[in-house]
């Protein structure tokens, strides 16, 4: 990804004298997640609605900057897994995602009012997002998991378990197809993946800790939400996990992704939008 961004950045000086344009619009689609509770990129479940706004400034018909803000939800549950081991673990989570991002976008073909009307494109960048995983307790109560330190985060007995915050960094990368409709609208279909700097989107990363210790420092609910195998039909009541008994996989961080359609307005100058609409919009929009 770093090489991709560097290659695009080296093209910027070549664009200073080219025809530029802006695109401002909205995006709607679906979101999903890939991590400890979901090991398939395109899962059979868990798709939630997402929406956002997008702004792009193109130096020329090929290369531009993009900025966006999005809201989405992600969720997963072991009870829906095809693995018996995961169903016995019985963890679940959901979280809202608020994201802002910026990056570079490359059109493979020179899409423009007077040139190509369709092009594939790719993008890459960096983003910041807010998340706060929660799950439903056996009583049906909505419980936020981060304050419970379900893997011993912040407890003095487990100095290797650092608390995680609600803000993360993501690295968006993806692509799609872009269509210039008439002289005013740009419609895109896009799929974008977000690699994150956290393994706690789902509040699962490492191993269990001693549940008695967790209950003593964080309360009985923390122990209850840390280990939920005793809520399954296969529970025989003969064991509880102790420190270092595997809970998640800390070798890889979590991902989330968006797929959707955006509709944007295409124009060439902020200071002359009215005249641009008069010149380029269909007659039904003219005064």
From TrEMBL:
Pfam families: DUF6089. Keywords: Signal. Residues 3-133 form the DUF6089 domain. SUPFAM superfamilies: OMPA-like. Residues 1-18 form the signal peptide. The keyword Signal applies. It comes from the Bacteria. This is DUF6089 domain-containing protein. The lineage of its organism: Bacteria, Pseudomonadati, Bacteroidota, Chitinophagia, Chitinophagales.
């Amino acid at each position: 990804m770093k090489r991709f961004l560097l290659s695009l950045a080296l093209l910027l000086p070549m664009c200073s004298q080219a025809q530029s344009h802006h695109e401002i619009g909205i995006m709607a689609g679906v979101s999903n997640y890939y991590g400890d509770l979901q090991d398939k990129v395109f899962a059979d479940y868990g798709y939630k609605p997402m929406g956002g706004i997008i702004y792009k400034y193109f130096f020329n018909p090929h290369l531009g900057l993009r900025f966006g803000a999005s809201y989405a939800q992600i969720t997963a549950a072991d009870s829906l897994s095809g693995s018996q081991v995961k169903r016995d673990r019985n963890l679940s989570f959901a979280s809202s995602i608020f994201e802002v991002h910026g990056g570079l976008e490359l059109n493979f073909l020179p899409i423009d009012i007077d040139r190509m009307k369709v092009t594939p494109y790719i993008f890459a960048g960096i983003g910041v997002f807010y998340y706060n995983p929660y799950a439903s307790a056996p009583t049906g109560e909505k419980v936020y998991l981060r304050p419970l330190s379900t893997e011993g985060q912040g407890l003095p007995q487990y100095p290797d378990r650092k608390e995680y915050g609600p803000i993360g960094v993501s690295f968006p990368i993806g692509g799609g197809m872009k269509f210039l409709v008439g002289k005013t609208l740009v419609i895109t279909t896009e799929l974008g993946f977000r690699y994150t700097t956290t393994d706690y989107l789902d509040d699962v990363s490492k191993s269990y800790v001693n549940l008695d210790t967790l209950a003593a420092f964080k309360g009985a609910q923390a122990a209850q939400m840390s280990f939920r195998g005793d809520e399954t039909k296969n529970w025989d009541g003969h064991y509880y996990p102790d420190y270092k008994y595997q809970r998640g996989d800390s070798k890889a961080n979590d991902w989330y992704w968006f797929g959707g359609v955006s509709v944007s307005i295409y124009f060439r100058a902020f200071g002359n939008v009215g005249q641009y609409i008069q010149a380029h919009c269909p007659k039904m929009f003219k005064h």
